[in-house]
Amino acid sequence: METDFLVIGSGIAGLTYALKVAQDCPDKKITIFTKTTSDETNTKYAQGGVAGVIDQENDSFEKHIEDTLVAGDGLCNKKVVEIVVKEGVDRINEIIEWGARFDKEPDGDYALGKEGGHSEFRILHHKDVTGREMERALLETIRKKPNIEIITHCFVLDLITQHHLGYLVTKATPDIECYGVYALNLRSMKIEKIQSKITILATGGNGQVYRTTTNPYIATGDGVAMCYRAKGRIENMEFIQFHPTALYEAGVRGQAFLITEAVRGDGGILRNNSGEAFMERYDSRKDLAPRDIVARAIDSEMKRTGTEHVWLDCRHMDHEKFLHHFPNIYEKCLSKGIDITTSMIPVAPAAHYSCGGIKTDEWARTSIRNLFAAGECASTGLHGANRLASNSLLEAMVFAHRAYQESVATINQVTFRGAIPDWRVEGTAAPKEMILITQSLKELQLLMSDYVGIVRTNVRLARAMKRLDLLHEETENLYKSTEVSPQLCELRNMITVGYLIVKSAQFRHESRGLHYNTDYPGKSNIVQNIVL
Fold first, then answer.
1. Choice among 122, 211, 291, 456 that is catalytic
2. 463 an active-site residue?
3. Whose CB among 13, 213, 307, 414 lies 3.0–4.6 Å from 374's, allowing a Cys bridge?
């Protein structure tokens, strides 16, 4: 199969990119690969909203830039922050033109919310399912474009580079090129090669590396792992954002239900087991402090009191307003026997967002030629050491647009490589025991949660690395001797991502933003990115 533009992932970054390319290049073929259904993405589960300076009478680009820089704790690329904040408003207006509906006040103005770390009300939202609404609008618009093909249930295995042509490729190899991908068709279970002139990774996050996450089960870090195997540059993987308030359900692992930060923005109060509103002891901004501070505060309270969760108190909030703004949360809590008007919501932190990822420049270019990355899998320099709430959807749209601009400017200079070898399957057999995969996955999630969570130590990181080495060895042996399956490939990718998180954390001899190591409690005078 040959395609001009290959998009891996169907979240907001991939869909925005595909739509723009299709509009600009009606004679070119755009192919989108997604490993499940077209709408099952991290974007779909984004509740809070998208940040943008819409109300320029009461807000300003300068305020949004400063809020982002403060949250990023010294590691943001200021030029990139300015690009995203200033270009973001145009991208928001574009998706509105494509049909996305954001909540409005009775007078017709947009109903803007405020979340932790923001100095002004600037969050556009659609109830508490903003991401789902943006995904819907994009998919409906894309289906009208005849030159876009969405191929579902297709698992991308590896990027094709000079390595597959018999050349030695290392991190030091100049001008590594991407020629396309190998992919496993989950319907036929056959491995196919797809040649592309331009490829963009928009594969989302890696929350499933942890035992409890707000991410869907597809968030297994596939793009980051593939790029690393292809000798691409990966950056700042130690900065894993834990959302402070996921719904706590005893004994539940995997995807946890998110209680958006906007609930605290509207007046929700965090309380410990004694009923005390504890956030004032940790930060003057109380419940609206940035996520890294709130998550560490909750972690500290849970450890101090020996409990597995704290409480989010919404009993004093306007019931009708809550129902209007957070209907999904209200129904979910009610289904678990929690009436928010009379009972508090049990919450605990859960892995939520990766601030690091595939290192890109300001045009979304990776260190591999003809390969772009956008969305959560990319490290653009916007988030630094900690992402400001509701900046992620904004970043995805801005860098999808910039990747599109650079792609269409260079597409006519790129040709298909030709003579790409088929995927070799000789000497492999069907896996005899799936327990080898499922048990390794449990071990991985357990060690990452226990040793590489909100608070870290050198000893915990060293233990994690030893166990990861063993899991890596066992999984690689299995990979070489058995037929590939999505379960095995996802495990392999997650072990790679776990290694990158731990290795980056070991290299950072300080506590900054989302990375807190009790052996290095202060900040270093040297501000640096960790690039692997």
1. 291
2. no
3. 13
Interatomic CA distance for residues 375 and 393, integer angstroms: 8
Residues 219, 173 share a domain: yes
345, 231 Cβ separation under 8 angstroms = no
Beta strands in 172-316 (DSSP E): 180-185, 190-201, 212-213, 234-235, 240-247, 254-255, 269-271, 310-313
pLDDT tens-digit profile of 367-411? 999 999 999 999 999 999 999 999 999 999 999 999 999 999 999
In a domain, 480, yes or no: no
User: Rounded to whole angstroms, how far apart are CA atoms 426 and 153?
Assistant: 24
Give the whole-angstrom CA distance, residue 124 versus residue 100.
11
| Count of other CB atoms within 10 angstroms of residue 379 | 27
Domain of 304, in residue numbers: 245-349
Query: Distance (Å, rounded) from C-alpha 273 to C-alpha 271?
Result: 7
Check whether residue 33 and residue 135 sit in a common domain: yes
The pLDDT-based confidence of 130 (bands split at 50, 70, 90) is very high
Per the DSSP assignment, residues forming a β-bridge with 196 are 3
Phi, psi of 120 (to 5 degrees): -135, 165
How many other CB atoms are there within 10 angstroms of residue 479's CB atom?
Answer: 16
The count of domains in the chain is 2
The sign one gets for the Cα dihedral 406, 412, 414, 418 is positive
Q: For residue 471, which of 443, 502, 430, 506 has the smallest C-alpha distance?
A: 443
Pair 215, 497: CB distance under 8 Å: no
Helix (H) or strand (E) holding 335: helix 327-335
Tell me, yes or no, whether 9 and 54 share the same domain: yes
Residue carrying the six token digits 């704790």: 73
- pLDDT at 427 (0 to 100): 65
Q: Confirm if 437 and 481 have CB atoms less than 8 A apart.
A: no
| Band of residue 261 on the pLDDT scale cut at 50, 70, 90 | confident
Q: Using CA atoms, how far apart are residues 12 and 377, in angstroms rounded to an integer?
A: 12
Q: Are 352 and 392 in contact (CB under 8 A)?
A: no
Same domain, 396 and 299: no
- What are the Cα distances from residue 402, in Å, to 258, 316, 372? 30, 45, 10
